[in-house]
Write a structure and sequence with these properties.
By secondary structure, the protein is of the alpha+beta class. 51% of the residues lie in helices and 16% in strands. The chain contains seven helices and six strands.
Length: 259
């Protein structure tokens, strides 16, 4: 007695989704490893990263199409579609988070605790070389107004300690944050400002940001201002404000520990 075998329709879109998602995951991991390398050119590596994200979006489209076929026609291939959707979500999770965060934030790349008289970046040869031969442009009044509206809590830190002691706290906080310190100039007397010039990097992509810290002596202590400017891109997705907040919190905690 012979059994008749019935061919179950199987959507190929599910397999395409899984293959593309796996490939996008490999491309994305490689791009992140490349862009984190100090010797790598960020622009090409970011382009590769972008291609991985695009592949993930295509994989999601194939996966959704496959699920529609499964639901409508009873076709097989649901497991492959779900697997592709899961792998694609691993790639898209952080970009989606950054995109949602960026939608509600202004297009800033330079944030300062002093919007009226931002700390100036050093023009020394050493600092210029550390910034890859660039000087962060000065934001206009409209940009600073956008910063005040978006980050009203970004403000100078005033300490009731001598300027030299405030400078040491600021320098130690920069070390604790694992910033690359380029220059560290102590305050000069009662009117001369101290300055710390540094380079920081984002956690995941290791993208550079230029930082300058100003320590201003006051009759009742010292005032610390910080300016952080992203080197790549046309928006910082809140990174500079977060960096300044965490740094000043570090300084304040160090000052509290001394008491």
């Amino acid at each position: 007695m012979r059994r008749q075998l019935l061919d179950e329709p199987v959507t190929r879109a599910g397999r395409y989704a899984r293959t593309l998602a796996l490939f996008s995951l490999i491309v994305t991991v490689m791009a992140v490893l490349i862009v984190r390398s100090p010797s790598a050119e960020p622009a090409p590596a970011l382009a590769v990263l972008g291609s991985g994200i695009v592949l993930s979006l295509v994989a999601v489209a194939f996966a959704l199409f496959a699920m529609v076929r499964v639901w409508r026609d009873g076709a097989g291939g649901l497991g492959a579609a779900v697997g592709g959707l899961f792998l694609a979500s691993l790639v898209l999770a952080y970009p989606a988070y950054a995109a949602l965060k960026g939608v509600r934030l202004p297009t800033l790349t330079d944030v300062s605790t002093d919007t009226e008289r931002p700390p100036a970046f050093s023009r020394s040869r050493l600092a210029f070389a550390a910034r890859d031969g660039r000087y962060p442009p000065e934001p206009g009044p409209a940009t600073r107004e956008a910063q005040r509206a978006a980050y009203p809590q970004i403000a100078p830190l005033t300490l009731d300690v001598e300027a030299d002691e405030a400078f040491e706290l600021a320098r130690k906080a920069a070390v604790n944050r694992k910033w690359q310190i380029i220059e560290a100039i102590r305050p000069g007397g009662r009117i001369g400002n101290g300055r710390i010039e540094a380079v920081a990097h984002t956690r995941i992509l290791n993208l550079p940001a230029d930082i300058t810290v100003r320590v201003h002596p006051r009759a009742d202590g010292a005032r610390i201002d910080v300016r952080s400017a992203s080197r790549i891109g046309d928006r910082d997705f809140g990174d500079n404000a977060d960096r300044i907040r965490s740094y000043l919190d570090e300084v304040a905690n160090l000052a509290i520990a001394l008491k």
